[in-house]
Design a protein that fits this description.
By secondary structure, the chain is mainly alpha-helical. It has 3 domains: about 5-170, no CATH class; about 170-365, no CATH class; about 410-510, no CATH class. It has 19 helices and 6 strands. The protein has helices spanning about 5, 25, 55-85, 90-110, 120-145, 150-170, 170-205, 210-225, 230-235, 240-255, 265-290, 295-310, 320-325, 330-355, 365-375, 430, 470-475, 480-485, 505-510, and strands spanning about 45-50, 120, 260, 265, 440, 445. It has a two-stranded antiparallel ribbon. β3 and β4 form a beta hairpin. α11 (about 265-290) runs antiparallel to α14 (about 330-355). The longest helix is centred in the middle third of the chain and has 36 residues, at about 170-205. InterPro entries: VLIG_GTPase.
């Protein structure tokens, strides 16, 4: 029987409910005495009056805190002794600290050396044990050296794992498996977290298969469906920033709102990566376990070597220092236990990603920036109508390719107005470049057809084609556009009669 199973048979499950201690709380404690408040003591669950049934419950409640502090005083003394010398973490410290709790509660309930009228119940024992273990974990992580000198946060996890396993009275095999779990899970989580942005990027880029043109088309359809001029205004003024926000929303919808069997795509992608890694690790565990391995140190070295040959997960022998130091006598038994532990690792890792949301997720690299960088490329806009350049290379001009647009817009959407009347220009710049009309640039008038004098990097081929989409936008939002640029709406006769017949659906279908 284990230590806790012998002493706490009715409360054996409490250790399984423990999590890492609240380090902010326990870090502030200099001692255990005085750290249990009376409000934590339950008159129903933590003690039972066995002498003088009429004894006031509140008096017994306060006396229960006295008993706790008596136990804590002994443990504080032990900790003080341990803090005096530069020593390494040792199993005997765990037994000694737990034994102080066990023996003092047992002694109390015998009532040979006290006059208290109550017995302490198993749930009180559990409360004290949890509190002591939390404090002890923080104490050891701060003050006692560990063989491999890991980072403080890593050691807190290791110390906690050690305490839980010892409290459970686990075998050396199980303790070694626990340390294996703690060491490998972190590495897997780091690797999967690095891979997920690339997975997200691939999923979103798959939707936008034709690159920048598909992206802009999707944005324009979305804008038309919403008919919200403020969004049109944001897109016209800064299409790149608008596209960044739009891709972020698309990524969040794709990753976290689309579910299969109640599992988000983000979690599915994570589970796929986790399973691939763990399946390979399971195979390597079996391969590494043979009669030639004389002990844990040799097994760890074989396991790490074979693992790194597979290039699935990069592992260092250093992270297994607590595994190879365990006194495991039967490697076949250990291998079997580790196979089961891998399934626990799978469940643990799955749960990490299953609960991530668009709000809580912390990307190692921002997939939106990566997506936009590949899709958008050139940031330039048409010098007249503000239509984005179609090129997806930021350096295309240096490569000998001029700025071009898939389509152009009525000039008024870019802010152009007639000089005399201040009224919005409805003509397309692709029409203007073939005639003798003029525009202003740097307070001078220039012929549209000679635009290359000022904008030599731009190619605007003369064309009679018009964009039904942007015609619909101008007709629908001409008042808002006029206000946006502080100009006047065009005269009715300036707008071709057939323009007003274009519906939203015609506009969308024309893209």
């Amino acid at each position: 029987m284990t230590l806790l199973q012998q002493e706490f048979p009715s409360d054996a499950e409490f250790v399984g409910q423990l999590g890492l201690p609240n380090t902010e709380t326990y870090r502030s404690y200099n001692q255990l005495v005085g750290t249990i408040d009376v409000f934590l003591i339950s008159t129903r669950d933590h003690f039972i009056v066995v002498f003088e049934p009429d004894s006031p419950p509140e008096k017994c409640r306060n006396q229960t805190v006295e008993v706790a502090n008596h136990i804590f005083q002994k443990i504080d003394t032990k900790f003080a002794e341990l803090g005096l010398t530069d020593i390494q973490f040792d199993l005997t410290y765990v037994h000694e600290i737990l034994e102080i709790v066990v023996s003092n509660i047992s002694e109390h309930n015998l009532h040979l050396n006290n006059t208290y009228k109550f017995d302490l119940l198993p749930k009180f024992q559990a409360l004290i044990m949890i509190h002591v273990i939390n404090y002890a974990t923080e104490f050891f992580s701060r003050r006692i050296k560990v063989p491999c000198k890991p980072q403080t946060d890593d050691y807190k996890t290791t110390a906690w794992c050690y305490f839980k396993n010892i409290a459970r009275g686990e075998t050396e095999d199980v303790i070694a498996c626990g340390f294996f779990n703690a060491a490998v899970v972190k590495v897997i989580e780091e690797q999967v977290s690095e891979l997920l942005p690339m997975e997200a990027q691939g999923s979103v880029q798959g939707i936008l298969s034709h690159g920048k043109q598909t992206l802009i088309k999707r944005i324009l359809i979305d804008l038309a469906e919403k008919e919200d001029f403020m969004q049109y205004k944001a897109f016209i003024r800064d299409p790149y920033t608008f596209a960044e926000k739009w891709i972020l929303e698309l990524t969040n919808r794709k990753m976290f709102e689309e579910h299969t069997d109640d599992v988000s795509l983000y979690a599915q992608l994570a589970k796929k990566q986790v399973s691939q890694i763990l399946n390979e690790l399971g195979n390597i565990v079996i391969k590494a376990t043979d009669d030639r391995n004389a002990g844990m140190s040799s097994w760890v070295e074989t396991f790490v070597t074979q693992n790194n040959e597979c290039n699935t997960l990069a592992l260092s022998k250093d992270i297994f220092v607590h595994v190879e130091n365990r006194n495991v006598t039967n490697l076949q038994t250990f291998s079997h236990a580790l196979t089961e532990e891998i399934e626990e690792m799978r469940r643990r890792l799955f749960s990490i990603y299953e609960h991530d949301t668009a709000v809580s997720v912390q990307w190692i690299t921002n997939p939106v920036s990566e997506i936009l960088d590949k899709l958008w490329g050139c940031l330039d806009l048409c010098v007249f109508c503000k239509e984005p350049c179609m090129m997806t290379s930021k350096d295309h001009v240096m490569e000998g390719k001029l700025h071009e647009c898939v389509q152009h817009r009525p000039l008024g959407i870019g802010g152009y107005r007639k000089s005399a009347s201040e009224k919005m220009v409805v003509d397309f710049c692709s029409h203007k470049v073939s005639g003798d009309q003029k525009y202003k640039h740097n307070n001078e008038s220039w012929l549209y057809k000679e635009y290359k004098e000022n904008f030599p990097d731009w190619e605007i081929p003369p064309s009679s084609d018009t964009s039904k989409y942007w015609i619909w936008v101008m007709c629908k939002f001409q008042n808002e556009l006029a206000e946006m640029y502080n100009m006047k709406i065009p005269d009715t006769e300036d707008i071709p009669e057939h323009w007003t017949s274009y519906t939203k659906q015609i506009a969308i279908d024309s893209l």
